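User: What would this chain look like folded?
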Amino acid sequence: AGKNLAEARRAAIVEKNGVRVAYLGYTSVPAADTEAGPDKPGVTAIRVKTAYETRGHNQPVRVRTEPDPKDLAMLLEDLAALRKEVDVVTLAYHAGVIRLPRVIADYQVTVAHAAIDAGADVVVGHSPHIPKAIEMYRGKPIFYSIGVFAMTKSFPAPSWKQEPAWAHGTVRNHVDLDPEFPLMPYGEPCTLALLAKITATKTGVTRVAFIPMSFDKRYRPEPLRRGDPRFDRIVRYMEWASEDMPHRFAIEGDEVIVTG
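Assistant: Here's the prediction, encoded as structure tokens.
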């Protein structure tokens, strides 16, 4: 975000031990009218176009999503410029299908792949409130969603009871609320989270891992250790969520190493 579009497009750059890391934020799910403009404060947004394709008798409608070409070109321009300034480029991408396990939208894959092609070393996604797939693309990691670390509220989302798809169970097949965490009303998987751990060097990223995370009964995020049943549960969940994406997981101590 920034006081105008030029400021919003500037990455945060952190230097540590001689290694320069850029952290650039974009979103495809901004609140209405919050996109930054030349003279307007706001966020850097990649708008999404949706199309519906009929597929014949007794076939479900295919929903296709794609990023706005001009918005995507702006992101790629920013990444290409950063590639010349720093050793490691991270795209923080606020996007995705909220609450639904496993589902990755077409536009997310398009943006993530294009970002890496343009020079990003890591894509870290968030927004859906639950962990999503991890993909290794051209040897670089895409975390489609790492979940949430601290997001509570005292009432369920209105959609849970008011929207027919939720009320009738069509969407809720895998996302009933967890009665043990009444202040996290985003579906049971929202109590799972990942801490991405990237080893950054002058020559780029040399190691990719994640630490399984959960919450105690006071809603404080906590890293889990190998041997904790919740650790194993999250690793199994991530294998399930990432089934269709190129990846390999290997446990090393209390971390899960990610390779292609």
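The mean pLDDT is 92. If you want, I can go into more detail on any region.
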